[in-house]
Design a protein that fits this description.
Length: about 450
């Protein structure tokens, strides 16, 4: 058993550890496997296309391809039931079955998702990432031989993503700021005050923060793999802009409100380090903009509200329900759809938003816990049923409270700004596992 020792970077997919480049272009390609033998051939070919975590200094630079498989996909490839039963039960159920726990209700519920997301038709997900559209096309061209001329493998869905010229997401905030420090990954975390997390929090087959080792069986299939959650999140940009404008006393106050609900100014500068005004130089500095804690300087949230988006997603050193280090995640976001022109306050009907990706070794206590307990509840920091002001599954009943002396500032009920359009739980196999899947025999 490989339960100790250094991370085997040459067997782990690069997409597990590498933050996406800035700027970037990305594509998600989803396939259905109708012919088991050809599905296995797809895995065999994919093993030659996927970039490894050891390739960070490769001639490809910041361009890579990742391959993920759903539980339905593993079934379609003929992985025995005895092996499937060793995977996390959330993975086996699939994201659509977990919708209620994740807050995917009402407009966000699976019956409203884009076909075929959330169904048994989604088997394999290819993701290609590059610094620009030209190099992305080259990466897709390199991957194309893996799935072309396999009539038993059908492309069923595609989503193209790209960096906006502003290098922000559609609500106007700099994205991709936070990256956890992971022992042995060779990639520095973005918060220099954070003690690196055990590799087993993110890669299967290594000790995690509790000393446990999770490895689906057989070991050649589970070891060096990770779980991933992909979500297509539609953003209601006009509604978000109107809410800020309607509740602000003027343009300056509008920017302060935007910072208070996020926990950062739009430039990426955190309220923790720049409480009174935006600091674009700080926001652009990857070594400073995420190096801060909350508990010592701001336990009551007068600077960074406890209910804001970034403090919910990562309470850092705060004493909250659950040990924070057990719920850390690798998060990635890639923008899709055209930007809503600056100043426009009416929706133009275009589909725009974020392709969100979570990567970790514990779907339940990482992604699902944060989504249900921290994003869609407020009990952990004494705020009752309050939800995340930006991504929460709002029903127009709960508002947002900004701690302030002498009187706190209460904002009116929040509409839903983000609607789930689809999602999947996936497994990111190691390169050895891709080859093993390619060599499966009935």
């Amino acid at each position: 058993m490989h339960t100790r020792g250094a991370l085997e970077l040459d067997d782990i997919q690069r997409g597990v550890f590498s933050p996406r480049p800035t700027p970037y272009a990305a594509t998600y390609l989803v396939f259905r496997v109708d012919d088991r033998a050809q599905g296995r051939e797809l895995m065999r070919r994919a093993s030659a296309v996927v970039t490894t975590a050891a390739d960070s200094a490769s001639p490809l630079g910041e361009t890579w391809v990742s391959v993920a498989v759903t539980c339905h996909g593993l079934e379609a490839l003929g992985v025995p039931r005895t092996a499937l039963d060793t995977f996390a039960w959330e993975f086996r159920q699939g994201m659509a079955a977990r919708a209620k726990a994740l807050g995917d209700v009402g407009e966000s519920s699976p019956e409203n998702w884009e076909a075929p997301l959330g169904t048994s038709e989604v088997h394999v997900v290819f993701t290609a990432v590059a610094p620009d559209a030209e190099r992305l096309e080259e990466a897709i061209d390199r991957a194309r031989p893996a799935y072309e001329h396999l009539p038993g493998v059908t492309a069923v869905w595609r989503q193209d993503c790209y960096a906006l010229p502003t290098e922000t997401e559609h609500f106007g905030y700099r994205d991709g700021v936070s990256q956890p420090a992971i022992e042995g990954s060779g990639i520095a975390g973005s918060n220099q005050l954070e003690v690196p997390l055990k590799a087993g929090e993110f890669v299967l087959g290594y000790p995690d923060e509790l000393g446990g080792v999770q490895t689906p069986q057989p070991e050649v299939l589970g070891h060096n793999g990770s779980y991933a959650a992909f979500r297509k999140l539609h953003q209601r940009v006009a509604a978000f802009r109107r809410y800020l404008q309607d509740n602000a006393t003027g343009p300056e106050d509008e920017e302060l409100l935007a910072a208070k609900v996020m926990g950062r100014w739009r430039s990426g500068a955190p309220l923790a380090l720049g409480p009174r005004h935006d600091d674009p130089a700080l926001g652009a500095d990857p070594h400073r903009r995420n190096t801060f804690l909350y508990q010592q300087d701001d336990p009551a949230g007068f600077t960074t509200p406890g209910g804001c988006h970034i403090r919910r997603a990562n309470p850092r050193d705060a004493s909250v329900a659950g040990e924070v280090r057990l719920h850390r995640m690798i998060r990635r976001g890639a923008v899709y759809g055209p930007p809503l022109p600056r100043g426009v306050l009416e929706d133009d009907g275009a589909d725009r938003g974020l392709m969100f990706a979570f990567i970790g070794a514990h779907l339940g206590r990482q992604f699902e816990f944060v989504q249900s307990e921290w994003m869609n509840d407020g009990v952990f920091f004494g705020a009752g049923s309050a939800r995340d002001p930006i991504t929460g599954s709002h029903d127009g009943i709960t508002g947002f409270t900004i701690p302030r002396r002498p009187l706190r500032r209460r904002l009116p009920p929040l509409p839903r700004f983000v609607v789930t359009r689809g999602g999947e739980y996936c497994f990111l196999p190691s390169l050895s596992a891709l080859r093993w899947l390619g060599e499966l025999r009935d």
